[in-house]
## 1
Amino acid sequence: MVARRTNLYLARRRFKQQHGCQPVRNRFHNQDPLLGLDAIWRTVQRAKAGKILDWVLWRARTYGPTFASRESMEPPTWLGGRESLVTADPENIKAVLATRARDYGHSATRHVAFAPLLGAGIFVSDGARWHESRALLRPSFAREQVADLASLERHMGLFLSLIPRGAGDDTVDLQMLFFRLTMDTATEFLFGSSVESLRALKDSGGGGLLSPSASDSAFAEAMNDAQADIIFRARLGMFYHLQSNKRGKAAIKFVHEYVDRFVDEALRQDAEKGTKSNGDEKYVFSHELVKATKDRKVIRDEIVNILLAGRDTTASLLTNLFFVLAKRPDVWRKLKQEVAELDGQLPTYEALKSLKYVRWCLNESLRIHPVVPMNDKVALVDTVLPRGGGPDGQAPLFVEKGSIVTWAVYALHRREDLYGADADEFRPERWETLRPGWEYLPFNGGPRICVGQQYALTEAAYVTIRLVQEFARIESRDPGPWVEGLGLTVCSRNGTKVGLYRESS
Ligand code: HEM
């Protein structure tokens, strides 16, 4: 034991020398210096107050772009809690996601928290299993026009019909409608048949536009409960087994059984048709997947993963964007001017690409409110980050096997040295000249970059344009600032309460 430790110590000393590593420049000192358990308490308290991201930003601005902290909820080592390195440095993030991606994997927390719902799907897997998932999914997203605009318009019609036709006197929570819309479009894309949660709301009389109490489709509810279960487990980290969430378990079972029905149907249709296809059928994701594999469990896992990946992300982007737009008549006016180029016609794929200001607004929303604001990986081997060591923080930094590297996209996107003194402001015009690389990472980077990026941006642009076409004016009915609602994604905690006017005055 002593000899093994001595050898390890000497090997690591050599490794550090070879790579020119120096001690981390800054360290955040925990109140509990051994296990860092105060981090769990602090996270719970800050989550309650909607202040986790403020804290993330404050620490990056106080301790510099890369610092060490003992705050991981991973199982401790024999020496105490695991060390985390927190970074908002593009070079370091590039190392974790691209140049040294093989040195990292998902943390034990992610496996434990996500696996009951997501099985061995793309979000939970690493190494060879991930390669298989990615290869399986990539062709299904390869078609540029993967988002179906005709289907989107049908759901959008329902969405718009739920907004009162008055003069903007009613207050509408667009957030609730966005979440239903993306659930409806995602299930149609995945299964070929939508859960129609907007229709359920309409059939219930459209009441409760300000509260999510109107009865939702059972699947959408089960998916929410299953997701809540994941978040709860992830927050408990190594203490996850102390909880028993019957509601979460039942929801996961329901989701799996529901998805299995569509998997079986896709397999049945595939067996009937064989490889024959007349080429003009509707694009259905589960049907594409069964062309690549007949393994029922693999197909189900991947579908549930895509649903989780695709639904809340796009809805959160729209929620955050419209929260800001409702408070920015100047930006709304510019959007209206640009969208007027369509002459009242429904947007086509070409139009979606050509409307630059719409794209700038989406980019800017994802910059100041990145929907996945933080992420982490665990070092699978001893490795190195290019920066963060030495007195000026410019020297390479040793990362011990088992350490967690957290990258704070929220802090990265608000770095004043990268985005200017107005980094905290929503200013779409900055995208006229901005061409960021690793400084801008709403969709992750490297080999694990989001596969649904084009799908998401197409859907978000379409919805934005349709709302701008439909309404002359939008007015915020929330006097407060944007407050974070942090789950697997981040969106406005208080919804997006607005008045929408069809006439301009
Ligand atoms: C605004 C919308 C979206 C944003 C901001 C976003 C962002 C991200 C981010 C940050 C990741 C990396 C997550 C991680 O593994 O830790 C990711 C991965 C992924 N996203 Fe998205 N996403 C969006 C929409 C979508 C949509 C609509 C789909 C599918 C329809 C999708 C499918 C995926 C998949 C499958 C992965 C896993 C990729 C892999 O590990 O190889 N995303 N996305």
Note: DSSP finds 19 helices and twelve strands in the chain.
## 2
Amino acid sequence: MLKKKLLITFSISLFLGAFYSCNQIVGSTTTANAVETPDQKPEIEEPVQQDTLYLMDKLDSLNRNLIVFPAVDSLNKIEPKQAKRNLRDSIYRELNKKDKHIYLTFDDGPLIGSRAIDSIATAKDTKLSAFLVAKHANMSKRLKNDFERYSKNPLVECYNHSYTHANNRFHAFYSNPELAVADFERCEEALGLKQKIVRMPGRNIWLFDDVRRVDLTSGSQTADLLGANGYRIYGWDVEWKIHGLSGNPVQSVNEIYTRIRTMLGNKSTLKPNNIVLLMHDDMFQNKKGQQLLSGLIDSLKQHKDYHFEFISTYPHKY
Ligand SMILES: [Zn+2]
């Protein structure tokens, strides 16, 4: 108890001030070593600035007042690098105590497979996010019905994955941002989508709040134009692949489940304690694939601190 009392919560500015000065000390020590002991192997430094940015990013995702840092006195008595490690561990410990948020996202529907996904959402009472291609909904009566099932299901939220899916010629599509944006607007209108939430075909791009992360620059101008028009764009942290026709997974349920656990554990997702999984509707055309999806949901549900969320609520903070 007394030990706990020794730990205090102090303001982020004080913390960052201490942290920056730690970095300066580390930097000057390295220089001194290089001059005074040239024969010695220079000490390999961690990428200090990146670490700092990384931790700041993690902190940014939290209600900072919930984090308990070691008292200033105890930070001063230990080595700067050790202090940094302690701080990171302290942040991770706090994060590990909190709820984790999982976003199961399905692209390219409605397609064969969408109806089964819709049924699994209901059977498992699990929220799913569907990024839809409007052209597919107009391809047949069956697919139109499948889209309507999605839109009526309170456990499924429907978002924009463009009208044409770029006709799968992504580079050409994104070379004309105005036309590309018009394609997303056409999708929104055709499906009557209520939320301005997009996933860009063929691109893992994130653009919302102060986040802008682009995987391939050919989509960046379109992303910025969508952003200027009030859209939020979401990519993914991890993709699960299954061969649609055979139902054979590229990654087994256990592999993808372990990946999700590992990424949540080592904070390698875009936002800590939030993980976005990408799947495609046509992966679940047959029983085999559908059983795998049910199996993954069951595995994840074993964790009482895991919660399934709609991407419209991304990211969850504390
Ligand atoms: Zn797609």
Note: Residues 107-108, 161, 165, 201 surround zinc ion (CB under 6 Å).
## 3
Amino acid sequence: MTERNYTTVNPCVMCQPMGSVMAFKGIESSMVLMHGSQGCSTYMRLHLSHHFREPVDIASTSLSERGAVYGGSENLKKGLRNVITRYHPKVIGVTTTCLAETIGDDVGRILTEFREEDKNADDVHIISVSTPSYEDSHTTGFIKAVDAIVRHFTEYGMGNDIFNNKLNVVLGEHIAPEDTRELKRILTAIIGLRSFIFLPDASETFDAPMTGKVEKIFPGGTPLSDIIYMKNCAASIGLGITSDNRAVDHLETKYNVPA
Ligand code: SF4
């Protein structure tokens, strides 16, 4: 048997936005727009599709020399318009790359301007995550994105007082789609089918069956309606190899959901 060297099999584990992409791909009708140069999204598409053996779409704002000098506001707004028109997603995850972070683009301000200018964006949830890759790793990118998703939807202003007695299960980035499916099967057998909320759930989006149909966004992922109600659950479990599960901490400190 050939001995494998994992530093060469998975070389881009140090890339923070890659973790963010993995988190967004586990929620319903979600598309990722990477704010930075085109090479980053190409690299991640290639790496993720090699790893999961699935086609992976990641849009890019394609910052060039001009954007690097004058700022990427124009590219980001154009990228958002293109993603909305072509993919019709319910959620767009805007994740930054080394370049966007180095030039110091104020993504929050650009997104506020975009919402004011473009009424087509009213029905789309746009969630930004700051993921400079010269610090931390894909693990942190995943943790930050899941935290941003939970904060966004729990503050969405619905269902504050409807206790649902469910269990939140917030996964770590190392849990494979197959493991997710098995964990869901085990939990269904123990506490029942609708007694838990899994986030993110890439068991179908990163492990889709061959249907012969080309899907722009794969069906599956955690339903948005479930994420909204995570704040009303009975408890949360964070699964992962790091103890830094920010989403679980946030649900505990802000909504008193025991972790
Ligand atoms: S430049 Fe940064 S964000 Fe882009 S692929 Fe490399 S490490 Fe990742």
Note: The longest helix spans residues 138-154.
## 4
Amino acid sequence: MTINTSVLPVIIAGPIVRKAINKQIVFWLVTSQQYQCCVTLYDENGTKVYSATLTDKQHACITVGKQAFVNLLNIHLTDDLPDNTWISYNITLKNSTNTFNCTELNNLCYENQAYPRFWHTTQANHVLHGSCRKPHHKSSDGLLAVDTQIANALKDKNPAPDLLMLSGDQVYIDDVAGPMLSAIHQVIALLGLHSGSWQNEDIENSEQLLSSPDCYYQRDKILPLFEGDNDNFLDFFKGKKKRVFTSVSAHNHLISFAEVMAMYLLVWSPELWEFVTFDDSKIATKHQQRYQEEQKVIEEFAKGLPSVRRALAHIRTFMIHDDHDITDDWNLTREWEEIAYGHPFSKRIIGNALTGYWLCQGWGNNPEVFDEIYQQAKDCFSSNKMNNIDALIDTLLQFNQWHYSVETHPKMVVLDTRTQRWRSEKKQTALQV
Ligand SMILES: [Fe+2]
């Protein structure tokens, strides 16, 4: 696909308000070009409390594709933000040819609003909690309820929520609907998202993956097998070849980094769905009925995304990984880790998901702890390719500060129970199923 950059939206996902407490405000957004950012904050009376063009220290940016830039705006103020008040904001993006205000995004603001806003308080009494979110689940999207809560709060019908805590899976890397996977591939081509190549016996890059007859609904045939070669592993798997990835729905398990990145863009923003057409011509006949059924659910999901994007622009949102953000049963046991990380292809698949988690979820919880990872990622991603992604993945897999706390009253302490989950196991034991 030839990329016509002139038709791409300026902002392709976000803005999402992330950490915002006392003197710090963090915004996350993905743009289709590299921009300089100016942020202006207003108090409830419309008085400017902050306005600046952000410096490199305040504006981190990772180039995840030819036309895709993950931006984290991390603003430290001199004074505390006013307490128990709506803080309005504008984000202006500038490059040599264009200036764009985030308020120009369709449906970003609620009725009669000039700017998006979020409720700022040091309290955490009215906390919205979001758990797992699967686009092809046959029930309505839970994040739509956040939009309704905020709309009512803005009309003084109910108190404003103090924050949103998303502690479940925001993406299911291991359980993807066929039409979603097709949309992901269209977005990868549209934005030129980076995939790189990986170490594997047969399929070792994105092109080969896409041209494989097993690309849709049959990825369980592509995913790595583990063949035990010591007694414990043989006992663990009863002496048979087993798949590393245990999800019963792994037939569309995401594999490349580009697939992971595109998934995030498609679950948080309506923008890229405009470029997606549903076409089952690449789907094997035996899977077409399933594809068509899933398409109806995915189309419904996508219809809600303007409201989801608007909600996430209006409430400070914290996140922590569950297992499906990476893969089912992630780090469930010592054996699982030894098998999964001992195989270069499965390690890369997990690492690609973890890289996406860091960029889209973990980073905005507490940017300062990721400074070294950011520097390494900056060297890894360039406009044309990814370099040395395996070294970045090694760093991310060794990282042990995914947990964090938020200085609200009461204090919110968020534990990492997914990379630290089996540490009491001193020796290899059989998987309990
Ligand atoms: Fe979950």
Note: The pocket of fe (ii) ion is lined by residues 132, 168-169, 322, 324 (CB under 6 Å).
